[in-house]
Q: What sequence folds into this?
């Protein structure tokens, strides 16, 4: 990779980190190519990305972003997972690290807030933005459904009473 390609990669990664909602750093030492591919596919399906680059280039890309504090965690064979949704990348990385002990979460950051491994784990336990939106819509629709049921109940009860009286008389 020549200098101009490296500069283009750093610029591209800087843009990605600037727009990312969360960044997670994990050691992948000992993972096979098939395991890495499997994790990347899961990440892509969920809307996140896992990149492995030279640590020096990643440090340069992190400069000037909210995630600049992560540069000290870039030592040894590490990969960087990121996503726009602040829950997706940590959730996939934590799920995969439970299934495969060779992937170890070092830490991460959400905006300017730096997270240790436990912070990433707790962030992964939260519901995603889509799940939260679904719950919110459900909560907003539930009262309307209950009101409609309450309004209809007296009318249906009255109809049953009149029907029973008609059958008796």
A:
């Amino acid at each position: 990779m020549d200098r101009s390609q490296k500069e283009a990669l750093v610029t591209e990664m800087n843009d990605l980190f600037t727009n990312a909602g969360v960044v997670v750093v994990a050691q992948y030492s000992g993972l096979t190519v098939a395991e890495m591919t499997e994790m990347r596919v899961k990440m892509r399906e969920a809307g996140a990305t896992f990149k492995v680059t030279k640590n020096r280039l990643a440090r340069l890309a992190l400069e000037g972003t909210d995630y600049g504090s992560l540069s000290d965690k870039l030592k040894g064979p590490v990969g960087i997972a990121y996503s726009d949704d602040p829950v997706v990348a940590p959730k996939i990385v934590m799920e995969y690290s439970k299934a495969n002990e060779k992937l170890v979460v070092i830490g991460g950051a959400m905006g300017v807030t730096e997270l240790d491994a436990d912070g990433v784990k707790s962030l992964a336990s939260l519901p995603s933005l889509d799940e939260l939106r679904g719950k919110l819509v459900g909560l907003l629709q539930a009262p309307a459904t209950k009101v409609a049921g309450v309004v209809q109940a007296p009318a249906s009860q009255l109809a049953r009473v009149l029907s029973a009286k008609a059958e008796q008389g």
Notes: The chain has a mean pLDDT of 85. The helical segments are 3-19, 33-46, 55-62, 88-99, 117-124, 129-168. Residues 127-169 form one domain. The two ends are 95 Å apart (CA to CA).
